[in-house]
C-alpha cells in the first residue's frame, strides 16, 4: 500500500521517548531540501507554545523539517513550554544541520502539564539518524502522533501535471476536541511538486475551510491544531506560479486527500458509532450552508438521537432554525439516507414515512442527512458523528 514514503525527497521516523508509557510519542519529517510550505492553525485565542513559533516560521514560506511530540500538548505551560519547544527545534537543527527558522514544531496531548523537554530532546538526538524513506517509517510516524485515536490516519494520491508524475501523501491525528475552525487535530501533507509558497498558502486555506473546518465531534476547539503542507519540487515539474490548469488539478487532489483525512478523524470520534455526512443545498451563499451544517452537526440532541437510532428528525430542522440563517421553512426538504434514501419533509410538510424502515436505516454506521432549502444555488458538505455513553467515559477519565 502506498503512503507518504512514496513522495520523493522526504524521510520520516516515529519513536518512543517516554512521554507516553508505552506508545510512540515522537515524529520526525524531513525534506532533502527546503520545501515550499504553508500552514493553517487553530483559531482559539489560547494557543500552545509550538503554534506561536510556527506562525513566525511559516512566514518564510520555506520549511525543511517538522518535529512532533504526542502525550503532552505544551499548552498553558508559559515560559517553560516556550523554551521547551525551542529546545526541540534546536535539537533538530543541530542533528540535521537545518536552519531553525526552517523547522516547524507541533505538540498534542494533555493541556497544562509541564513539557518533559529532556526526554523529548534526548529522543530527537537518538532518532534523527534513523530517518528513512522505507515504507515502515510512514506507519511509524502515523502512529507516533496519536493520542486518544484508535487507529492511524493516512492518505495518498498520485496524479500527473503534464508529463510529470506527482505524489502527495499525508498523516493526521484527531479523535476528540474536534470542532469547526479546526479541532484537536494535526495534519501533515507532503508533496513532490514545485509550487510557489504564496499559492500553496492560499490553496491550503481554501481547502481547509471545506474539509477540516467542516468537521465536529464534540464542539470543542483545541489549542494545538495545525495543518501543514511541504512541497519540495523533487518531481521536477515546471513550477506552478499562477492559477492555471496545473494549480486547479493540484488543488483538486489536495482537497481529495484532506476530505479523506477529515472523514477518518470524524469516524474515529471518541466513542462514536456513526459517521454522519451533512449536506445543505439551496441557499443564497455558501457561508450560510456552512453555518447550518456547523449548528446541526454540533447539536447534542441531534447527535444523541443518531446514537439511539431514534428517528426524531424534528431535532435536525429545529437546529437548522437556530443557526442564524434566514430561510423559509415552508420551502424546506429533508432527506436521510444510507443504503437507501428516505424523504421526510417536502416543502416544509411532513411525508408519510415508515418509521420501522427509518429506524433500520439509522442503524447504519454511515448516514447522510440532506437539507434542501430551495432558495438559491449555494451548497456545502460537512461531517460529524453521534454522541455516546463511551464519549463521556473517555473524557471523564482522560487524565486519570
Automatic annotation (TrEMBL):
Q: Which residues form the active site?
A: 184
Gene responsible for this protein: argJ
Cite a single Pfam family from the UniProt record: ArgJ
Any one cellular component term from GO for this entry?
cytoplasm
Q: Where in the cell is it found?
A: Cytoplasm
Residues the record marks as site: Involved in the stabilization of negative charge on the oxyanion by the formation of the oxyanion hole: 108-109
Its job: Catalyzes two activities which are involved in the cyclic version of arginine biosynthesis: the synthesis of N-acetylglutamate from glutamate and acetyl-CoA as the acetyl donor, and of ornithine by transacetylation between N(2)-acetylornithine and glutamate.
Q: Please provide, alphabetically and separated by semicolons, the GO molecular function terms listed in this UniProt record.
A: L-glutamate N-acetyltransferase activity; L-glutamate N-acetyltransferase activity, acting on acetyl-L-ornithine as donor
State the pathway, as annotated in the record: Amino-acid biosynthesis; L-arginine biosynthesis; N(2)-acetyl-L-ornithine from L-glutamate: step 1/4; Amino-acid biosynthesis; L-arginine biosynthesis; L-ornithine and N-acetyl-L-glutamate from L-glutamate and N(2)-acetyl-L-ornithine (cyclic): step 1/1
Q: Which GO terms describe its biological process?
A: L-arginine biosynthetic process; ornithine biosynthetic process
The protein, known as: Arginine biosynthesis bifunctional protein ArgJ
Keyword set for this entry?
Answer: Acyltransferase, Amino-acid biosynthesis, Arginine biosynthesis, Autocatalytic cleavage, Cytoplasm, Multifunctional enzyme, Transferase
Positions of substrate binding: 147, 173, 184, 270, 395, 400
Which SUPFAM superfamilies does the entry mention?
DmpA/ArgJ-like (SSF56266)
Q: How does it assemble?
A: Heterotetramer of two alpha and two beta chains.
* Class of the enzyme per the UniProt entry, highest EC level: transferase
Its UniProt entry gives the catalysed reaction(s) as: N(2)-acetyl-L-ornithine + L-glutamate = N-acetyl-L-glutamate + L-ornithine; L-glutamate + acetyl-CoA = N-acetyl-L-glutamate + CoA + H(+)
Q: What is this enzyme's EC?
A: 2.3.1.35, 2.3.1.1
- Organism whose genome encodes this protein: Cyclonatronum proteinivorum
Regarding protein family, the annotation reads:
Belongs to the ArgJ family.
Q: Where is this site: Cleavage?
A: 183-184
Amino acid at each position: 500500500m502506498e503512503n507518504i514514503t512514496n513522495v520523493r525527497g522526504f524521510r520520516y521516523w516515529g519513536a518512543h521517548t517516554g512521554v507516553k508509557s508505552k506508545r510512540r510519542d515522537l515524529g520526525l519529517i524531513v525534506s532533502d531540501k527546503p520545501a515550499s510550505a504553508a500552514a493553517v492553525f487553530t483559531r482559539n485565542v489560547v494557543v500552545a507554545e509550538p503554534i506561536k513559533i510556527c506562525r513566525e516560521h511559516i512566514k518564510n514560506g520555506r520549511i525543511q523539517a517538522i518535529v512532533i511530540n504526542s502525550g503532552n500538548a505544551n499548552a498553558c505551560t508559559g515560559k517553560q513550554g516556550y523554551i521547551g519547544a525551542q529546545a526541540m527545534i534546536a535539537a533538530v537543527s543541530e542533528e540535521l544541520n537545518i536552519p531553525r527558522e526552517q523547522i516547524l514544531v507541533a505538540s498534542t496531548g494533555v493541556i497544562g502539564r509541564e513539557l518533559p523537554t529532556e526526554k523529548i530532546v534526548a529522543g530527537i538526538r537518538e532518532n534523527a539518524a534513523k530517518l528513512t524513506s522505507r515504507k515502515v517509517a510512514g506507519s511509524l510516524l502515523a502512529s507516533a502522533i496519536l493520542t486518544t485515536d484508535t487507529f492511524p490516519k493516512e492518505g495518498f494520491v498520485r496524479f500527473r501535471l503534464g508529463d510529470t508524475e506527482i505524489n502527495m501523501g499525508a498523516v493526521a491525528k484527531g479523535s476528540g476536541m474536534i470542532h469547526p475552525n479546526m479541532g484537536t487535530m494535526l495534519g501533515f501533507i507532503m508533496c513532490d511538486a514545485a509550487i510557489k509558497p504564496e499559492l500553496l498558502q492560499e490553496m491550503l486555506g481554501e481547502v481547509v475551510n471545506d474539509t477540516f473546518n467542516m468537521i465536529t465531534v464534540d464542539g470543542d476547539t483545541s489549542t494545538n491544531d495545525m495543518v501543514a503542507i511541504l512541497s519540495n519540487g523533487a518531481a521536477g515539474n515546471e513550477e506552478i506560479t499562477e492559477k492555471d490548469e496545473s494549480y486547479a488539478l493540484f488543488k483538486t487532489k489536495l482537497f481529495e486527500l484532506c476530505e479523506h483525512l477529515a472523514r477518518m478523524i470524524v469516524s474515529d470520534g471518541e466513542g462514536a458509532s456513526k459517521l454522519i455526512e451533512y449536506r445543505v443545498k439551496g441557499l443564497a451563499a455558501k457561508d450560510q450552508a456552512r453555518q447550518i451544517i456547523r449548528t446541526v452537526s454540533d447539536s447534542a440532541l441531534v447527535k444523541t438521537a443518531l446514537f439511539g437510532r431514534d428517528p426524531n428528525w424534528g431535532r435536525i430542522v429545529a437546529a437548522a432554525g437556530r443557526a442564524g440563517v434566514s430561510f423559509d421553512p415552508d420551502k424546506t426538504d429533508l432527506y436521510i439516507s444510507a443504503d437507501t434514501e428516505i424523504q421526510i419533509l417536502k416543502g416544509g410538510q411532513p411525508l408519510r414515512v415508515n418509521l420501522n424502515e427509518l429506524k433500520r436505516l439509522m442503524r447504519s454506521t454511515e448516514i447522510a442527512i440532506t437539507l434542501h432549502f430551495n432558495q438559491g444555488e449555494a451548497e456545502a458538505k460537512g461531517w460529524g458523528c453521534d454522541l455516546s455513553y463511551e464519549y463521556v467515559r473517555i473524557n471523564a477519565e482522560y487524565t486519570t
